[in-house]
Amino acid sequence: MGGSVDLELQTTFAELQGKVIDTQQKVKLADVRLEQLNRMKKHAHLTDKEIMCRRNVYASDRGGNSQSTRCLFLLRTTSGMW
């Protein structure tokens, strides 16, 4: 009787370990996707700023009321900045 309980506990524990590993892999995948989305969001934000700067330049070249500003945004890793 005691041996069957131990075997059942081992089986259940092995199943739980498998679920833990599966969940950890899913979390890592979600983290990677989140990082990609954050990079895409940052890129879109910088692109939007660049477009707005170019619109201001274009409007001032056409005699609009906007002041001319020239903008350049570079996306670099933090290790490449220093």
TrEMBL record:
<keyword id="KW-0143">Chaperone</keyword>
<dbReference type="GO" id="GO:0044183">
    <property type="term" value="F:protein folding chaperone"/>
</dbReference>
<dbReference type="GO" id="GO:0005737">
    <property type="term" value="C:cytoplasm"/>
</dbReference>
<comment type="subunit">
    <text>Heterohexamer of two PFD-alpha type and four PFD-beta type subunits.</text>
</comment>
<comment type="function">
    <text>Binds specifically to cytosolic chaperonin (c-CPN) and transfers target proteins to it. Binds to nascent polypeptide chain and promotes folding in an environment in which there are many competing pathways for nonnative proteins.</text>
</comment>
<protein>
    <recommendedName>
        <fullName>Prefoldin subunit 1</fullName>
    </recommendedName>
</protein>
<dbReference type="GO" id="GO:0051082">
    <property type="term" value="F:unfolded protein binding"/>
</dbReference>
